[in-house]
Amino acid sequence: MFGDIGGLEVATIVVLAIVIFGPDKLPKLIQDTMGFIRKIRSFADNAKEDIRSELGPEFQNFDFDDLNPKNFVRKQLLGDGDDPLGLKDLKDSVDLKSALSDPNPTPTASVDFSKAATAASAGPALAAGERPPFDPDAT
């Protein structure tokens, strides 16, 4: 959350806090703020424990970080450490350094699109000027 704040920004905030609140009220303000943050954290931890206890014993190892969309998608695609999609084998089989450093790359495989085009057309060929059939459910 605060990874984008640099040293100059922190120094500016400190100087502004000293100017606005004064050096004699600043320690009390910092203590009050830290106490408030501790209360919020304890409230959140208690709420998480209450949710875990209400869900039952089968959800005791439930991690709330898995609800983050990035973590959820990563966990659903890659699983719990295993590689169901075979991405690790694919990553290991591709050597990008040698492919990028090769001055005269030679294609290792070619694709014939004419076979794919004929396989894709399942129906009879259309006459000249004939309109293709329209399927309202497909659009």
From TrEMBL:
GO terms for cellular component: membrane. It is a single-pass membrane protein. The keyword RNA-binding does not apply. This is Putative sec-independent protein translocase protein TatB. It holds the Pfam family TatA_B_E. Its main location: membrane. It is found in: Membrane. Keywords: Membrane, Protein transport, Translocation, Transmembrane, Transmembrane helix, Transport. The lineage of its organism: Bacteria, Bacillati, Actinomycetota, Actinomycetes, Kitasatosporales. GO terms for biological process: protein transport.
